[in-house]
Amino acid sequence: MRIPRGLFIVPAVLAVLVTFAPSALAHGPVHRPHSGWFTCRHDVHANVANNAIARNNGLQPMCIGSYSWDDRFTVYRSSVTRDWADFPNIYVGCEMDGSLPQLCTQGQPMAVRVSSIRSDVSSVSYHYPQSDFAGNAAYDIWFDHTGRRPQGRDDAAEIMIWLGANDIGQPAFSRVVTIDGIQWGYITWDTFHSRHGWHYIRYWRLSGAAADSAVTLNLVPFFKDAERAGRLSSRWYLTGTEFGFETCFGGKGLEVKNFTDRLVTR
Known about the structure:
The protein is mainly beta. It has 1 helix and 18 strands. The protein has a single domain (about 10-265), classed as Jelly Rolls (Sandwich). Strands 2, 3, 6, 7, 8, 10, 11, 12, 13, 14, 16 and 17 form a 12-stranded mixed β-sheet that branches. Strands 1-4-5-18-9-15 form a 6-stranded antiparallel β-sheet, covered by helices on one side. The longest helix has 9 residues, at about 220-230.
């Protein structure tokens, strides 16, 4: 799920005045050496380790940051009270940036044809609180019909892999699939937003889900399963792999660290 797209207040517990690096953050933050980055502004992003971008993506008040420039972030303050209002995340590739060309990470191909992907292995450690939080911890992987740099939203498919969820119930699934020894509930539909339609495909972890977890996933079997179901085409292009928290309520204490995505093409 992508949320379309601000002065910033450092939480009192930090007891420091934090600034940000112009080269690393858009829309305002500059940095004091070695101090890390913190922001309460919507859509502000930080270029972090492993050519990834961490982003305060949402519509309701939330403050995120890190004491380092590693591939991580923590939610320090949140006033989210509306379903699916925020998606603080970290990603490689490209992510929707309003009506502008997508915001892409450095050193990453802007689009990779699905048929050319030999392997795609991603790792992440995450935590979500089990009180005062409703939402999920999920991968959000996007595909476009062409290899151009997308303008706005991708228009082919979105695969979400829900590793855990809290206080949002559980839907019915159209089938259950086993990938890497893990059972996943599968559901799909067509969706439409701002003149763009695409296939939405969700895999919800049914076995071994936890609020604290370190996960390594081979993403290709998910792509292959979606292809067999007729929801993804090998002719389409992978544009971005994101991991974050779709937030319906609360969210203080959400944390991601050690996010990597190793994509190998033929």
